[in-house]
Fold each of these.
Amino acid sequence: MSKTWPDNIARKAVLGFKPYSARGGATNALHLDANESPWAPPPVTQTGGFNRYPEQQPAALIARLADLYGVKPAQIMAGRGADEAIEVLLRTFCEAGQDSILTCPPTFGYFETCAAIQGAQTLLAPLRADFSYDGDLIAAEIRSAGRGLKIVFLCSPNNPTGHVIEPNIVTDLCQEFPEILIVIDEAYAEFSSADSFACQINQYPNLVVLRTLSKAYSLAGARMGVAIADPRVINLMLKVLPPYPIARPVEQAVMAALTPAAMPVHEARLKLWKSERTRMAKALSASSYVTKIYPSEANFLLLDIVEDEALLRALGKYQVKIRDFRQTLPGKMRVSIGSPQENDIALSAFGVEVKVVRPARTAEAHRKTKETDIAVRVNLDDAAGTKIDTGIGFYDHMLEALAKHGGFGLVLSCQGDLEIDAHHTIEDCALALGTALSRALGDKAGAGRFGFTMPLLKPLLMPMDETQAQVAIDLSGRPSMTFKGAFPTDHAGDFPAEMCPHFFESLSQTLGASIQIDVEGDNTHHMIEACFKGVGRALAPAFKREGTDIASTKGVL
Ligand code: PMP
């Protein structure tokens, strides 16, 4: 590695010019330095800071992204999607009419497009017939290319094939060619079980990893992606990046989507995404249009297609669009993995018979205040995958019991102001949970509505050692809560006993339910646990869906 790395491979113009200097962000000073407006644009209430230019790299955003990818802030350049990172790499390192990049087709076309725009040549080291990377071929092409080759773009999982690269190909290239940038485009990394190369940035000053928030984090419309690399490489790229690439609303959207409490919800979505990929691969093998499905570690499947025109007509009938690669990859098309319902429509278009099942009643609620940051995801029709973390051990245990006995799946994560006390966390989680459950119930068509012991409309009896809790529930849409019981002590573990009735009061408000509880016992832990289990057992029949009837003479609930 040269002492002047990476200046020795950068474009001369980039080394020569002074970066455009302009203030971004705002301090407490009176800012008359950037010809901005002193007034917020209307509507005045929602546009804090919009009249001021943003920082080139907003510090809080960079810190969050560094944490997300497990690297240091100085190792990150954030821009408008991974696309902008590719553009900036070309503009920083490739001299027009002189330098080149290397790619491994079939792969993401934008590498070559950016090279063409910059006036750089694209050299090719194609994937093998099975779409695996040929490390020897790549190395041989680099050796014969000479000094003008500046960047090798490798994509893993690769778009459009879905294959991942063997890690030793990357590390061998980084070692053998220390003065060439080895760029790994990991736009689809979250869908793969392979480790990210981001953790190897410290070892290899010529390694660059690209990540995006467009796919796994649902932010394609916000435009946010990063390059992760040695700080010296990042500093050069920041000279070329425009002064204000990240609009304030984009920063706000990204920070909201990446709020720590939301991470378990992203994980739950990814799990569903991957299971849908498996289901789609299996189901599509029954389609008469599909002769081969390539294994994929991304959120798409590459397919070999026959009777392509007939398939396109069928897709048109269902208004489903898939990516047609026939011009560059004969007989191949790529289908993205959508939601279960979207995938069912796609399967119908492919002529695959799908068992008509009612979509699972899933919903999310996200609630962020100065006191708590909460994300909840529920599935009323699948109890698997429950994961709870509120920071209060006893409360986690109770919520788990509620979900288990209620027969619903619950992902709930909260970062609350426990340094004050447990009140805000317990109350706000109850409110968010009720909101998510209410959203999942929708119009409550087919739902049982009531929870008690049949047939005499008696409250449900929940025994626990010496304790007995009686519970009755009505998902009437009218919030109310009655609680009878006196706890012998004021806490169970780290959970204040007075918060037990308050939890159910808060839950009833956002769930829109009448909850009645009467508990007797000698042990506070037993009594609180019996209440949560009992309400869970009562919710199970109230949530259970059979048919489509709305259980009310009013016709609405
Ligand atoms: N790399 C690959 C391999 C991609 O498929 C895409 C988008 N299709 C990108 C990068 C660009 O992503 P972004 O939305 O972050 O610009």
Amino acid sequence: MTSPSWLDIAVQTPAHSGVGGLLSYRSPTPLAAGQLVRVPLGRREVLGVVWRVRPEAPSGIAPSAIKEITAVLDGIAPLDAQWLKLVQFSAQYYQRSIGEVALSALPPQLRDLNPTQLARRLKKLPAQAGPLQASRGHVLSGQQTTVLQHLAEQAGPFLLFGNTGSGKTEVYLQAVQSLLAADPRAQALLMVPEINLTPQLEARVQERFGREAVVSMHSGLTGAQRLKSWLAAHTGAARIVLGTRMAVFASMPQLQLIVVDEEHDPSYKQQEGARYSARDLAVYRGHLLGAKVVLGSATPSLESWHQSRPPDADGDPGGRYVRLHMPERVGAAALPQVRRVDMNHQARRAVLSAPLLATLQDRVAKGEQSMLLLNRRGYAPVLHCADCGWKSACKHCSAFRVFHKMDRTLRCHHCGFTDRVPRACPDCGNADIAPLGRGTEQLEEHLAELLADVKRPDGKPVRIARIDADTTRLKGALETQLAQVHSGEVDILVGTQMIAKGHDFRRITLVAAINPDSALFSSDFRAPERLFALLMQAAGRAGRAAGQGSPSEMLVQTFHPKHPLFDALKRHDYPAFAASELAERNAASLPPISHQALLRADARSQDVAQGFLSAARSALEDVLGRIPDGPQLLAQVSLYPTVPLSMQRVADVERAQMLLESPSRSDLHKVLTQLHALLHQLRSQPEHKGVIRWLVDVDPQAI
Ligand code: ADP
Ligand code: ZN
Ligand code: ZN
């Protein structure tokens, strides 16, 4: 009889089973850390990852009580030590269990396959990729060449601050190319916010490096496709992984370069389960592996901007990132001229100002394209009865239901609750209920009326298209619609932020922001940063082809034309905007100057949710009063009062939160660790039975 080996194994455990949360098993044969196994868990058999091999049986449990693993997936090489470290760090940093993070980082199909089925899948994989057949890229511009040199010579991490259309993507591709050419096994990871939005990029990468070398990883893939991509990356057959935030966990044994494109994009932050930031984990992973990390954006997050600040004369040593700058657009393409249209001087309640309408007519007549940005889908955000004041509230959420005219429904965008528009006011019977405010659907309709007589150069009537979450629900719909824009079939494109991101539209000479003001006065301190990024990205869609058509323009309709944000936009001056925002964040001790975490509780009533958080807070203060460095931690970490979320109720669940904030990340984490243990205890007490769930969000994106 060979001696058994004792293993700590990560399995998918319930969300709050405690940080750590590995389970003990034994195996008749010796196994290594990182191996994938199948193990009994309760009555089920589940996938597990061997996390640690113990030299002897764990104490405190009778060896006979320790279950034996069921099978080893030995067709797959063990996950390497760095991958295990990445997961362990993520679990600890974002306050989740290792099992949860590890298992959700693996392709779902892997969980269901037995070793035989898996062997079959592995056989179908392409062999190890041979030498890379990369096609030649563009001849680089001077600034691109300089940036590539820096990337080659310095360690990073880098923040590539490059204007829209300055050729950042080309820099990424050539950096990948020289890396892969120099080392026949090296792998690169290219992360993008949303692949579906940029099918162009996927095509461009595949075309450059050949289809075999590149795999994609995102939530739009089928289970089988995801498994195939994952295996190809894990075996090294794939040299390049192109993926969304989940790809930061891809197993890539030879990973040497990580690119995070549009690093400012909020979708890099996972919003459920382990609420990780894929951008931040990319930096950590690069550090762990000694791999290069390039974060790129025309409008960097203030976090990355701050992190890449140069040293100053007052003794600030500067940030950890190397900032590289590409100010010029490729070719002679000019950024659009930004014009602010003062809506105070326009007809009351006008949707489209006179100057915008005139410019639109001009562009259509010349056969040029325009893009209208309105960040609100549906016909109108609310229906309203002028007689009694009724509004189309959602009965399950603290939100209004949106009027969709196409199918005459009222839809809640938070819980999905939908029904038909009532014929008359449900409260007073008034037959005259009217839409209030406007969304993309109404804008499209309105434009068609206003421009009914305008002709394109070919004598045909104007063609208007709308792209938003409603028009792109069906698979392939977005691709089709984008293709129509690219081919010039469409004269005016109306849409939400979906149209502002990343697209390389070649024929757009006019971009307009219809109603950007609300974000100026939002209670979310990140709203101006988001708005500025969105408008700069939108502006970046215009004038991408030099010397074609009219000089490109961006029109911003606003009631606050003197607002400094629009001033900076007019000058295309991100650094000025960032400097003034950072000054404000500094004055208010907000991120990135300080660090935050949110503790949230959901319950059927606000009282129960807030009661839980308040109890957690007292218990925490109590514990910190007793441990040696507790008082110092309490002085360093502010605990804010418990409050309802701004969206207080969703789907009949009441939500409350408590903010923790500190100038020191490590102090904040020490407090979170204490808190975590307390929350488990509290949750099991009878008075907190009504708590549906609680969660910790470290570095939250919205508070
Ligand atoms: P960004 O990612 O900064 O928006 P891209 O890399 O997509 O910019 O470049 C914008 C456009 O310019 C693309 O169509 C790209 O093919 C082209 N381009 C990039 N670099 C060069 C270059 N050195 N010479 C010619 N065209 C280039
Ligand atoms: Zn009424
Ligand atoms: Zn609702």
